[in-house]
Design a protein that fits this description.
The complex is a heterodimer of chains A (325) and B (371).
Chain A: E1 2-4, H1 6-20, E2 24-28, H2 44-48, E3 53-55, H3 60-72, E4 76-79, H4 91-97, H5 101-104, E5 114-119, H6 134-138, E6 144-146, H7 151-163, E7 168-173, E8 182-184, E9 197-200, E10 205-209, H8 213-226, E11 231-235, E12 238-240, H9 244-254, E13 257-264, H10 270-281, E14 290-294, H11 305-308, H12 312-323
Parallel strand pairs in A: 2-3, 2-4, 5-7, 6-7, 10-11, 10-13, 13-14
Antiparallel strand pairs in A: 1-8, 6-12, 9-11
Chain B: H1 2-5, H2 12-21, E1 25-26, H3 46-71, H4 85-93, E2 100-102, H5 108-114, H6 118-126, H7 149-164, E3 170-175, H8 182-193, E4 198-204, E5 207-208, E6 211-212, E7 233-237, H9 241-256, E8 262-267, H10 287-294, H11 298-308, H12 314-336, H13 343-348, H14 356-370
Parallel strand pairs in B: 1-7, 2-3, 3-4, 4-8, 7-8
Antiparallel strand pairs in B: 5-6
Classes of the chains: A alpha/beta (325), B alpha/beta (371).
Chain lengths: 325, 371
């Protein structure tokens, strides 16, 4: 076991898969000799060569097309989109093309592609770096969308994502890259996609969340415990498809739930989680399922992040509304 | 005042003219079927020349029958191809089986001659997933509807071939309107930067639906857009099968020699509407223009060329026409026999392993379908 940050765990997963599978290719803007703008691919080109880990021209759509073409030739591409705010340039390749390839060819072709991309607020990035756009991906049939919140999860989920024979969008929260270290096994292991993880067990309220909000929710749960509330925190880990079983069994146990996301209220996946709970566990609910989400404005100018981004206080406030409904 | 500050060494008009001069139209056969450029003549055997003519005639009939079947409601989406036989078929004729074609929505003929069974092309038109289940060993994608997407994908396929050491090329097609897309530029630029074995063909039929090519760009040729990617560009008479064949063969040679991609602009024309989905070309095209281009018909000039060589006659042509009609009839019958699509079929082809939501929905629809 080693103490790793999330970014180290990601690099470790990439190294393992480059070694395991000669068809894996890592490419993107500045991922080669530079080792990535966040050092996620640090040392990989040196170890595996320019043929496996290489830079591309600055064009996200081209990177998407390159991935699709390489997949058609038997490769397992792991492209990087430098910041997920730039996904709009490559929406067609992702949502109009790779997500549809298996279906549109009736299974003749498939796309074992893992798109890695950082996102997320709290580090004062410039415009369109931190936007939470996972909701757009989650609405696209043919994609799986993964958002890890810990180093351990990041490694196991990334290995599963790469090995999956259909496209996976792997979103890495900027604030979590080096926020803390955690014990991560040095050997390879996988975490199944589409499986949530109960990060904290409780009996009074379920908090269903993902990404950086997992940690805000855990902090909120600590505070609420001081007031005598037992709160369960469910980390979705994969936001599409949802792990219905884990969500519903938690709600059936606690009878109350909130869904916490960093994205704007009209975005993200919270509305979908609530709809699933309403359809499947309404008879267990003691109160409506409420949301913690950002205001429905454009992502804030960097100085306004602290007042705009949801945090543990918002989680506590909403949790209490539901607990005292 | 402007003339005073103008620097003689930086005459923008001259710069543009100098660029345009580099993109002269390659022609081998003129409208009368006479060889006007012996030096560029491709090496084709008599049998190959006849086969190319056979395919062009066949495809003209296929277009006529497809339009008529579409009108009868026996075909769905259809983008007419008449006029573009040289551009489409002579370029495909220069390829090998190992080469991978990424077609646009008008490029169904190339797929058929690369190995896609005719009944599947008809199923594609009707909107049936089995039409897109390309047989193993036939290296094509189904027709791309998003204009430009095939270009960035072609760069990837070509890079894949280069990495695999495959002696083959990726070939993709778009139209004149498509050259205005970002993906058009990114595709040729990526292939250039990676020196990947790709052939990018622009079929300039002068109209993108109703928009004339002059409204797409201020450039005099579309071939010169290759300059922006730093790759060779060539403009050919797209109504001349021999010129199209020669340009494609050369581009293929260069690609296989590791010299990277080529952009080929074929000057062509579609005699029919944009698609059969309600487009009326008389709204934007004059009869004079249509007549002018009908004189350039690739079949007419190639027929004359072959007849003079004693390689073609009416009897041969009629035999092709009869064969085409017969095979089209059989293919439509086979398409009619395809099983109706079920929602469970569509669910099954989404992923290798169904996620929970689709598992649930599969059961629901299976139940419905069993009633």
């Amino acid at each position: 076991m080693a103490q790793m940050t999330m970014i180290q765990a990601i690099t470790d997963a990439l190294r393992i898969e480059l070694k395991n599978d000669a068809t894996t290719l890592i490419f993107g803007e500045d991922v080669g000799v530079n080792g990535g703008v966040f050092r996620a691919t640090e040392g990989l080109q040196k170890e595996f060569g320019e043929d496996r880990v290489f830079d591309t021209p600055l064009a996200e759509s081209g990177i998407g097309g390159l991935s699709i073409g390489l997949a058609l030739q038997g490769f397992r591409p792991i492209p990087e989109i430098q910041f997920f705010g730039f996904v709009f340039e490559v929406m067609d390749s992702i949502a109009g093309q790779m997500s549809r390839m298996r279906y549109r060819s009736g299974g003749r072709y498939h796309m074992p592609i893992t798109v890695r991309s950082p996102f997320g607020g709290g580090v004062h990035t410039p415009e369109l770096h931190s936007d939470s756009l996972e909701g757009l991906m989650a609405q696209t049939p043919g994609l799986k969308v993964v958002v890890p919140s810990t180093p351990y999860d990041a490694k196991g989920l990334l290995l599963s994502a790469i090995r999956d024979n259909d496209p996976v969008i792997f979103l890495e929260h900027l604030k979590l890259y080096r926020a803390f270290r955690e014990e991560v096994p040095e050997e390879e292991y996988t975490i199944p996609l589409g499986k949530a993880d109960v990060k904290r067990e409780g009996s009074d309220l379920s908090i269903i969340t993902y990404g950086a909000m997992v940690h805000e929710s855990l902090k909120a749960a600590d505070e609420l415990a001081k007031e005598g509330y037992s709160v369960e925190v469910v980390d979705l880990r994969t936001i599409s498809p949802l792990d219905i079983e884990t969500i519903i069994s938690s709600v059936e146990k606690t009878g109350r739930a909130i869904v916490v996301q960093e994205a704007q209220k009209q975005a993200g996946v919270a509305a979908n989680v609530i709809a699933e709970i309403n359809e499947r566990a309404i008879l267990s609910l003691e109160a409506p399922v409420l949301r913690v989400a950002a205001a429905d404005t454009i992502y804030p100018f960097s100085q306004a992040e602290s007042v705009w981004l949801p945090n543990y206080k918002d989680v506590i406030e909403t949790a209490k509304k539901v607990l005292t409904f | 005042m402007a003339s005073k500050t103008q620097n003689a060494s930086f005459d923008v008009k001259k710069t543009l003219e100098a660029v345009e001069e580099q993109f002269q139209t390659l022609q081998i056969l003129n409208e009368d079927g006479e060889v006007v450029n012996e030096a560029a003549m491709p090496e084709l055997t008599d049998e190959q020349l006849q086969e190319l003519m056979r395919r062009m005639v066949y495809t003209r009939i296929l277009d006529q029958r497809s339009i008529s079947l579409n009108r009868q409601g026996r075909l769905g989406f259809y983008a007419p191809t008449a006029g573009q036989e040289a551009s489409q078929l002579a370029s495909q004729f220069a390829l090998e089986k190992e080469d991978f074609i990424l077609p646009g929505y008008r490029d169904v003929p190339q797929l058929i001659w690369h190995g896609l069974p005719l009944y599947q092309a008809f199923l594609f038109s009707r909107g049936h997933f089995q039409g897109n289940q390309i047989p193993e060993g036939v290296n094509v994608l189904s027709p791309q509807i998003i204009i430009g997407a095939q270009y960035v994908q072609a760069a990837g396929v070509a890079l894949g071939m280069k990495k695999n050491g495959t002696k083959a090329v990726a070939v993709t097609y778009t139209g004149d309107g498509g050259t205005s897309q970002g993906d058009f530029y990114e595709g040729i630029n990526f292939a250039g930067a990676f020196k990947a074995p790709a052939i990018f063909i622009v079929q300039n039929n002068r109209f993108a639906i109703s928009t004339p090519v002059t409204k797409q760009s201020a450039t005099k040729t579309l071939a010169q857009k290759a300059i922006a990617a730093g790759i060779p560009g060539i403009q050919v008479d797209g109504m001349d099968p021999l010129a199209v064949y020669a340009a494609t063969s050369e581009a293929r040679e260069r690609a296989l020699n590791g010299e990277g991609p080529t952009l080929i602009e074929t000057l062509t024309y579609r005699y029919g509407p944009h698609t059969m989905s309600g487009d009326d070309p008389t709204r934007y095209r004059t009869a004079d223009l249509d007549n002018e281009w009908e004189k350039k018909d690739p079949l007419v000039r190639f027929r004359k060329f072959l007849e003079k060589k004693g390689l073609w006659n009416e009897e041969k042509e009629n035999a092709v026409i009869e064969q085409a009609k017969e095979e089209i009839k059989e293919a439509i019958k086979k398409a009619d026999a395809a099983p109706k699509q079920k929602v469970t079929d569509l669910i099954s082809i989404m992923f290798e392993e169904m996620p929970y939501n689709l598992k649930e929905q599969f059961e629901i629809y299976q139940e419905k379908e069993s009633k």
